[in-house]
Design a protein that fits this description.
By secondary structure, the chain is of the alpha+beta class. It has 11 helices and 4 strands; from the N terminus they run E-H-E-H-E-E-H-H-H-H-H-H-H-H-H. It has a 4-stranded mixed β-sheet, covered by helices on one side. This is Glutathione S-transferase family protein.
Length: 222
């Protein structure tokens, strides 16, 4: 059976978790303790960059969430999550990459906003990202039209997290309706962190930020 190495509070892990549930793929859940277990030799043997998620399927080991999503959708044909035409595939991939490369990196600043207010530059970038997604959605049910696809899964594991952290979707009515729609799906219901877990995850992110600041300070001294 396919083994899924992940942490339930990792938004990148949740992309794969949601896809597994949406496609109804049986899997063994392998929760990785990110307080140090990711650096142990056993895990590094399958994930040399010590990141989750990882999928191991027989002799196949796949790291990087976008690659894992592609593997799952091509290997397991039930309930397909990718469109058929080159243009639609390119649009789906574009949306995945915009969320991954443009929106998600601003998550740390949003988590830390209670200690350091968001800069004008960060707020403008968030608005650009959300406006782009609103325009791409354009009153459709999902980013792929009437059918859920991998763009919805990548955006759907990220946008609701920003919303829960205080980023308003009120200026983006199509995105707001889309979020309500996907959050009603069983895969999202099962994988949504509780308020307690969300606060725990925020504290972990803040601790990681402090650790990196200390490391930079130590390097500058040395």
């Amino acid at each position: 059976m396919l083994k899924f190495y992940y942490h339930p509070l990792s938004p990148i892990s949740r992309r794969v978790w949601i896809a597994l549930l949406e496609k109804e793929i049986p899997f063994d859940p392998m929760v990785v303790d990110l307080h140090g277990k990711q650096f142990e030799e056993v895990f590094l043997a399958i994930s040399p960059f010590h990141h989750v998620p990882v999928v191991v399927h027989g002799d196949i080991q796949v790291i990087e969430s976008i690659a894992i999503l592609d593997y799952l959708d091509n290997q397991f044909h039930q309930r397909p999550l990718s469109p058929a035409t080159p243009a639609d595939i390119a649009r789906m991939r574009m949306l995945q990459l915009v969320v991954t490369n443009e929106l998600l990196p601003k998550l740390v600043a949003v988590v830390n906003a209670e200690h350091q207010p968001l800069s004008g530059k960060t707020l403008a970038h968030l608005e650009t990202c959300l406006h782009f997604l609103e325009h791409q959605l354009s009153n459709q049910t999902y980013f792929g039209g009437e059918l859920l696809n991998l763009a919805d899964i990548v955006a759907g594991s990220t946008v609701p997290l920003f919303s829960r952290l205080g980023v308003s979707l009120q200026p983006y009515p199509s995105l707001q309706r889309w979020q309500s729609r996907i959050l009603e799906r069983p895969a999202w219901q099962k994988t949504q962190p509780s308020d307690h877990d969300l606060q725990q995850w925020k504290r972990w992110i803040q601790l990681q930020m402090k650790r990196r600041v200390r490391e930079r300070q130590q390097k500058s001294v040395n």
